[in-house]
Amino acid sequence: MIDTTSLMIFIAASLALLIIPGPAVFYIIARTVEQGRLAGLVSTLGITFASVIHVIFAALGLSALILKSALMFSIIKYLGAIYLIYLGIKTLAGSNRPVTRLNIEPVPLSTLFWQGFIVNMLNPKTAIFFLAFLPQFVNPDNGSVPVQFLLLGMIFVTLAVTSDGMYAILAGSAKKLLTRSQKVTKIQTMFSGCTYLALGISTALFSFNHNE
């Protein structure tokens, strides 16, 4: 199994990467700003569930097969981009409604969970990340490669959900301080919508060399 030194280096490297906010963090912050701390935490769980699936796919070699296909890569990428852009447009459209309506029409928690799952599941950057990062700490001499992939992946996911959850909690605290006027509430909703749009456009423009 994985030796202690390699494991410690992996954990340190993972923490260093997680300190820098990525697309998932910005999505979680947007959800939290839009609907509150619980919404951010539930979105975090949805994103985490998708990350677990990505880890399993990577361990089984399925992610590598998908990324080798330019067609499959493009389909997944554009589906994810379209979904994020749809969320952005829908949120921005809602910002034009009276604030009282915004406050009484929260997105159900189950919907937030699955939206977070879909956003991360259709993000090719997540699959590429695990395929590029995890193999650096996998040694065939230490036993089954798929098992090592799963172990390292689950450790990273555990660290990520803790880190992402903290962002949701902090953003939730900031929301409570800010939501004191109708104007600020509308600005928060517009921020969320623009964040979704930016993430969607970023996903659409993302490219990957399939020959690597």
How would you classify the helix and strand content by structural class? Answer: mainly alpha
* Biggest sheet details: none
Strand content: under 5%
How many structural domains? 1
| Helix-strand sequence | HHHHHHHHHH
Distance between the termini: 28 Å
Number of E-type strands = 0
Averaging pLDDT over every residue, what do you get? 83
Helix content: over 70%
Weakly predicted, low-confidence segments = none
Spatial shape: globular
* Helix count, DSSP H or I runs of 4 or more residues: 10
What would you report as the Rg, rounded to the nearest angstrom?
Answer: 18 Å
Task: Give your account of this protein's structure.
The structure is a single chain. This protein has 10 helices and no strands. It has helices at 4-19, 23-35, 37-60, 62-68, 70-94, 99-104, 109-121, 124-133, 145-178, 182-205. It has one domain (4-9, 25-205). It starts with a helix and ends in a 7-residue tail after the last helix. With 212 residues, it is mainly alpha-helical. Helix content is 81%, strand content 0%. Helix 2 (23-35) packs antiparallel against helix 3 and helix 5 (70-94) packs antiparallel against helix 10.
